[in-house]
Amino acid sequence: MFISVYAVLIYFFLTDRYHTYQELFLIMVQVLILTILIPISIFYFLMSLGRANSFMLSEISQRKIPLFVNALLLYLLITQSIRVEIIPELYYFFFGALASTILTFLLIFTNLKASIHMVGISALTVFIIGFSLHIQSNHIYLVASFILLTGIVASSRLSMKAHDSKELIAGFIAGVLPQISLLYFWL
Fold first, then answer.
1. What is the mean pLDDT of each run of 10 residues along the chain (187 residues)?
2. Which domain holds residue 171?
3. How many domains does the chain have?
4. Which of 21, 95, 169, 187 is 20 to 30 A from residue 123's alpha carbon, by CA?
5. Is the pTM of this model over 0.85?
6. Hey, what long-range contacts does 94-98 have (CB within 8 A, 24 or more apart)?
7. Does residue 93 contact residue 127 with C-beta atoms inside 8 Å?
């Protein structure tokens, strides 16, 4: 859930482009509202209706509405807030996140519960690698840390018995594939 905030913070921390504090604040507030506050509110609404039983959404059928709403909110974010002419790097990250969300949503209909944790951490890892290449700066420790974090997330999901290896691989592919395919447009 906080992956989008991490991506924005990493972008503003590492970028060599000048952005005012007002821009940083405005983008951060928009990302917080559209990717954290509204989804949490909708989740609690679904819990009150009995459409979700826990925050982990362990049943495949419970994931449909939250993923669909997340796709709508990401679409709203990239069409109204973070447009390609303003911040292309973040635009393509969030466009990739939208594609990953749609892919994860479609996997539900094949009865595959892809790990959303793996989708997020793997997408962020590819974004960091791509952004390091884009600004032509050596952030090897940051890249290595996020590759390690990807492994830690996968291990924790297995040890908690929240997913099996097939679901982790599906989540990893759903996170990595859109980000890698969009690197061409902003690198």
1. 93 88 93 95 88 72 90 96 91 97 96 94 97 91 97 94 92 97 91
2. 3-186
3. 1
4. 21
5. yes
6. 94/4, 94/7, 95/178, 95/182, 96/123, 96/127, 96/178, 96/179, 96/181, 96/182, 97/3, 97/4, 97/123, 97/178, 98/71, 98/74
7. yes
Q: Please state the three-class secondary structure of the chain as a single string.
A: CCHHHHHHHHHHHHCCCCCCHHHHHHHHHHHHHHHHHHHHHHHHHHHHHCCCCCCCCCCHHHHHHHHHHHHHHHHHHHHHHCCCCCCHHHHHHHHHHHHHHHHHHHHHCCCCCCCHHHHHHHHHHHHHHHHHHHCCCCCHHHHHHHHHHHHHHHHHHHHCCCCCHHHHHHHHHHHHHHHHHHHHHHC
Closest alpha carbon to 124 in 156, 159, 89: 89
Residue keyed to tokens 């949490």: 40
The pLDDT tens digits for 141-164 are 999 999 999 999 999 999 998 889
Residue 166: the pLDDT is 95
